[in-house]
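QA checklist item 7 of 12: single-chain prediction sanity check.
[x] sequence parsed
[x] length recorded as 227
[x] structure emitted
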Amino acid sequence: MIKKILVVAAHPDDELLGCGATLLRFRKQGCKIKVIFLTDGESSRSETKNLDKLINIRKKNAELVSRRAKFVLPVFGKFKDNQLDKESLLNVTQFIEKEIKKFKPDTIFTHYENDLNVDHQQAYNAVNIACRPLTKTFVKNIYSFEIPSNTNLILTRKNKKLYNPNFFVDIKDFIDRKLSLLKIYKSELRKWPHTRSLKGVKNLAEYRGSQVGLKYAEAFTSIREIH
């Protein structure tokens, strides 16, 4: 039984895009949920004049999402946005290990290994190192989530596996709440037909649900499951 979930997300908004409705479902079942963000999600952008303001807004939005969803307040890393590949993987891993030791999750959700975004790739790599077997940070379950507009763009790169989920969560009762919370990150949403529009997110949930006979689902790849 899943009792504590830690989400390791590269940027504020990834937690909702990747597994927001699933988190809401588990929270309703009594799970404790905490999100750690590795980067601020803003520092690689061109609006350097207002960068500190934009970073603070993104941080406040992430905190508001966690409060409204009744999660533990999130933790923010200080790594630079879209530059995790330039950071020491050891430093990123140790940051994650520290949070695992504090929170003691039995389950972790993080990014997909072949995502187009380099921060997402490095988050996956660091989680796998932090959760290697026979260490004090060992957890039972690890799942990768998909991010609309990033994960399946891997089709544009050679010799990379397309996202192929094998673990589905029924989110029929939580999709509307997910979409409502996503509006908090309004600066990150796009207009339809972008995949990161509200309609695009809902369409993806409908598609994933149809793959397993559900109305709406979030889909994951299982990295580790121990029963």
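[x] summary fact logged: The mean pLDDT is 93.
[ ] second reviewer sign-off
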